[in-house]
Amino acid sequence: MISYVMFVFSILVYVTEAGEVAKAAYNPTDVFLINCGSTSETIDTGGRTWTPEQPKFMELNLENTSFFSDASHQDSGVPMVPYMTARIFRSNFTYSFAVSPGWKFLRLYFYPTLIHLYLGITCCPSNFTCSLSNTDFYAFKSFFSVTVNGFTLLRNFSGVNTYEPLEKYVIKEFVIPVKHTIHLTFMPCRHSSAFVNGLEIVSMPDRFYSKGGFDDYVREVGTVFSFEINNATALETVYRLNVGGRMIDDVEDTGMFRRWLSDDYLVSENSGIVPVVPGVKINYTEETPAYVAPEDVYVTSRSMGNGNNPIINLNFNSTWLLAVDAGFNYLVRLHFCETLAEVNGPGERVFTIFIENQVAEAKIDVIGLSGGSRNPMYLDFNTFVASNNINGERRDLRLELRPYIYDSPKYFDGILNGIEILKLNDSEGSLARPNLNSETLRDKSHVVVIILKSVGSAIGLVTIVVVLMLLMRHIKGKRNRQNNSVAIFKVLLKHYTYAEVKKITKSFSHKIGKGGFGTVYGGNLCDGRKVAIKILKDTKGNGEDFINEVASMSQTSHVNIVSLLGFCYEGSKRAIIYEFLENGSLDQFISRKKSLTMDVTTLYGITLGIARGLEYLHYGCKTRIVHFDIKPQNILLDGNLCPKVSDFGLAKLCEKRESIVSLMDARGTIGYIAPEVFSRIFGMLVLEMMGARNKEIVETTASDASSAYFPDWVYKDLENGEQTWIFGDEITREEREIAKKMILVSLWCIQPCPVDRPPMNRVVEMIEGSLDALETPPKPSMQISRGLVPDQSSSLPSFSHAEEVPEKASNL
């Protein structure tokens, strides 16, 4: 006992000395610490005082509705307070707490172990000691639900069926809006009881999780819109991680008693480093006050490392996989702070944030946004984790950081200091997902028995099956019609009138290109943004093709996909409004190469960006999009030479479950079809970027060009080590290896046999991977070289690259 008192005293001293910043940061208006089932005040290992339940918090009629108890034993690692006592409920029971208006943390503490239950008493909190008899209560066999002020927090919950099976006790943290009173209700399931060991209520700063990040903005991932969290929303804390740092206990927080765990969710520990910067002092700002996160969050971080070597860092990402319940929206809060002495100016370290394989923020410059070194900042994002309507389904929420190379920053690297992920309630006000357990299965089995008995005969079963099949077919047809309606009528983009389009383009005075579907004009929106507007040719019919294109593009969001800003659909007048890309198309870039620095890093970044964009179209977006018109004219470059895939007018939409795409009606420029489908032209495109096309033209001018097949001499030069036609002999060894890697990937992509060509996700892996992992693809025979073998999956004719007829380049 003496040692325990000394331990508590040491904790109190530590909190007094080290926790002053946390106390000064935020002083909560309401703090309730209730040690349920206790008879007196108790002090936890952090020095906080927990009080017993008081009559004003509890229902008036307590007789036979609840009982107090204590645990039969204490597992190692389980604190005494508040886990050694509990309140047991055998019917619905409500606690009520009068609090100030505003958002509150509500924390529920559970220790599902064998509990001695004291029976035969009137369970008034003023009389905890009178006990006529006792028995054992198996808390780990209990199943119950919990609601608060109309929100369902837990449903069919048991402390042992959480997703952290190694944890001996469970803390569930919620954020709830409150007007004046918190009504917290425990509802046991049938043939079961409910229990709780501790209750905690703590105030927080006004709109702490609803206003947005340090810029008062919640970015909705996958769209250009912001996301609103109103006062009718409840949240559940799923993760709160001190990235690159130690666990931060509740008393070390900034006054809200949050727990920050270490980040054990990084995909590979070898994919990042933890910089150590001693003696860092964080400069909190008005936008990021000291209560947002403790200093220990901002002084520790993870980065990719090798920041001054883009050749290495461009080959991998920093990735976290965090398991969450599917079918809910999530608030993802990310904390950043630059503390390294060598990173001390804006634009020196810039990176891209991906959430759920979509661009959450294309360009993050921490110092540029926060205003200086050691200034903390935090950003809020909303993302929806889709469900397949499978009961009990969980999915990994994917968070990635990738270097942003297009501004040529000093360090090709990313940094992250902290992660918070909170689940938002669904449309029914629920944060809960039914857990699969023996009680649930028993209930389901009981229902099945009743149904079988009611049917009574095999004929009846057959009849029901037939009726169900017909009903499902009807529902499926109705759903398909509804999906079509959504695609046509619910395009979440600005709808411009033709008169507005005419005004934006100044009566179509600035023509910047012409493509297969119409003419492209430059213009300016009313806010000054430059746009490119594609005026489609007059078409007959109801415009279904156009609407389908707009609908599919409105669901895409990726740094390497051109952004659709609006559309015009007015009778036969149809137009699409895109972002304007300063450097035009890739073919224009290639033709201007003499006036630009064609370094390996630039071409490598463009190649990787194109591959990532195509990978996203094929696998990442909501509807699989196979682009049938991939060519240099349809790859656009922004001011930082970031490539963006454009022109989805020839895209073919396929369900994600389909693995074979019919190409009988495929349209597009022959020779630039996506590698998964049947073509080799991603590889041809990359080889052309590197100057192989120009060398081919020069070297075959004086010979029979029809007898020369492009890769024949590419293989020969590769064998002789002369693979860098455009770079000359002055490139470094690392750059030469990168160039060779791009050539090898290209040669794999142009293999005559379709099954030998890698899909786009594999192409991205090959480009990002090491040269040592790549084998030289087999050299096609001369017979194949002179007459390319068409894919068996298509009726399209064979072709050679030299037969291409170039179109006039356009911005779109």
UniProtKB/TrEMBL annotation:
Amino-acid biosynthesis is among the record's keywords: no
Where does the signal sequence lie?
Answer: 1-18
Q: Which PROSITE patterns does the record associate with it?
A: PROTEIN_KINASE_ATP, PROTEIN_KINASE_DOM, PROTEIN_KINASE_ST
Record Gene3D superfamilies: Galactose-binding lectin, Phosphorylase Kinase, domain 1, Transferase(Phosphotransferase) domain 1
Q: How does it sit in the membrane?
A: Single-pass type I membrane protein
Q: Which GO terms describe its molecular function?
A: ATP binding; protein serine/threonine kinase activity; transmembrane receptor protein tyrosine kinase activity
Q: Which UniProt keywords apply?
A: ATP-binding, Glycoprotein, Kinase, Membrane, Nucleotide-binding, Serine/threonine-protein kinase, Signal, Transferase, Transmembrane, Transmembrane helix
Subcellular location, in the record's words?
A: Membrane
Tell me if Coiled coil is a UniProt keyword of this record.
no
Residue ranges occupied by any Protein kinase domain in the UniProt entry: 506-812
Primary localization class, coarse: membrane
Q: What sections of the protein cross the membrane?
A: 447-471
The record's InterPro entries line, in alphabetical order, gives: ANXUR1/2-like, Kinase-like_dom_sf, Malectin-like_Carb-bd_dom, Prot_kinase_dom, Protein_kinase_ATP_BS, Ser/Thr_kinase_AS
Spans annotated as Disordered: 774-812
The record lists ATP as bound by: K534
- Name the GO cellular-component terms: membrane
Where in the sequence does UniProt note compositional bias of the Basic and acidic residues kind? 801-812
Q: Which SMART domains match?
A: S_TKc
Q: Which Pfam families match?
A: Malectin_like, Pkinase
Q: Which PANTHER family match?
A: OS03G0124300 PROTEIN-RELATED, OS04G0586500 PROTEIN
> What is the designated name of this protein?
Protein kinase domain-containing protein
Q: Which organism is it from?
A: Brassica carinata
